[in-house]
Amino acid sequence: MTTTILESITGNVCKNKLIHGAVFHLYSRERQIDSTSACGNLKPDSRFYIASINKLFTSALTLRLVTENRLQLSNKITQYLPQIFWKDLVTINGRDFSGEITVQHLLSHTSGLPCYLIDKRPDGKKNMDFILRGEDQAWPVGKVVSEVKKMKPKFAPGTPGKASYGETNFRLLDEILQQIQGKPIDELYTEMFRELDMQDTEVLPSKSGTSYMPVYNKQNTVPLDKYFGSTHHDVASSAKDLRRFLEAYFSGKFYAKEQLAELEVWNNVFFPFKYGIGLQRFYIPRILSPFKAVPKIIGHCGSVGSIAFYVPEKSIYITGTVNQTANPSLVFRTMMKIIDKC
Q: Buried-most residue among 141, 242, 330, 336 (CB within 10 A)?
């Protein structure tokens, strides 16, 4: 793909009335591709909120501990977390299954835990809806645990063929990493960013006061300072820095390259995604793409229209954002156009 084609595809994204800015980075060491294009209020080196792409960071740190024999995926969370954190998290028909949750269940969203953000509360409302309407909320982990215990579990941990995507799993993983490493999760993230020379990547709120592009919901910006200040793992990054991380992840920096295939134990979460062990797959079945098979696309996306994916068949990495919570499908349509031209 030429830079001109990438610029054309990116420029068309900004013709959408909901999009204030977009940036896409396409990279392949083998094919000598290194192009970045931006439009609107985003520039090629702009920092933007990556949302759930941070799950790949937590995944990488967890897998490194497995590599170092400091953690096993089969370990129960009861080994690391105080009882007040895990007791009664997953209670079904009067039986508490919480003690059966493993690290792998958290990484693969097979724990049965509801999500404190996107799943319904007992009153039928969703906390994410309030946040997107502009009601910034602090969610320290103690509050997360308390909220989840009020919500209906999805299924018993490790139920075959069952998975339910949720932020709750990775908030608990953060706590486990902190217990093992003896450091707060934001410090663990920051050390990794320095190790990978990700100079445009920081945990929010940034201690250096570095600016990043605000998140949009339609025409409005979404205030998130309270939320970021309570999670300690939300991140702003650039398209190129996200690619640096992806390249390290898939080259075996954290988990042996020959073992990465072990993570591809796919369960359906929500169309068009499947989830493995700490890894997401964008998946279009052949029946919906009858003229051309969609190659394997693995990595992660975020609810703000952010993407960080690797396409092994084509040896390419695609990262970037449309920075809009109200049109999630646009970033994937754009990604497919880019892949198709490669």
A: 242
CA distances from 216 to 97, 193, 301 (A): 39, 26, 16
In the 8-state DSSP scheme, what is residue 98?
Answer: G
Helices (H), the chain: 3-13, 54-67, 83-86, 103-108, 127-132, 141-148, 167-181, 185-195, 225-231, 239-250, 328-340
Among candidates 199, 150, 268, 194, which has minimal Cα distance to 47? Answer: 199
User: 60-102, pLDDT tens digit by residue?
Assistant: 999 999 999 999 999 999 999 999 999 999 999 999 999 999 9
d(CA 116, CA 120) in angstroms, rounded, equals 8
Give CA–CA dist 237/199, Å, rounded: 9
- Whole-Å CA distances, 248 to 25, 60, 285: 16, 10, 29
Tell me the whole-structure pTM to 2 decimals.
0.95
Distance CA 164, CA 251 (A): 28
CA distance 274 to 167: 16
Whole-angstrom distance, CA of residue 159 vs CA of residue 191 = 36
Instruction: Specify the 3-state DSSP secondary structure of 269.
Output: strand
Query: Exposed (0-12), middle (13-18) or buried (19+): which is 15, by Cβ within 10 Å?
Result: exposed
Q: What does 199-228 look like in DSSP terms, one character per residue? A: TT-EESSPTT----BPPEETTEE---HHHH
For the CA atoms of 61, 65, 68, 74, what is the dihedral angle to 10 degrees?
A: -140
3-state helix, strand, coil in the chain (%, to 5): 40, 20, 45
Q: How is residue 128 written in tokens?
A: 């994410």
pLDDT tens-place string over residues 220-244: 999 999 999 999 999 999 999 999 9
Region 182-201: mean pLDDT is: 97
β-sheet with 297-302: strand ranges across: 33-40, 21-28, 316-321, 306-311, 297-302, 280-282, 273-275, 267-270
Residue with tokens 């910006």: 221
% pLDDT > 90, the chain: 91
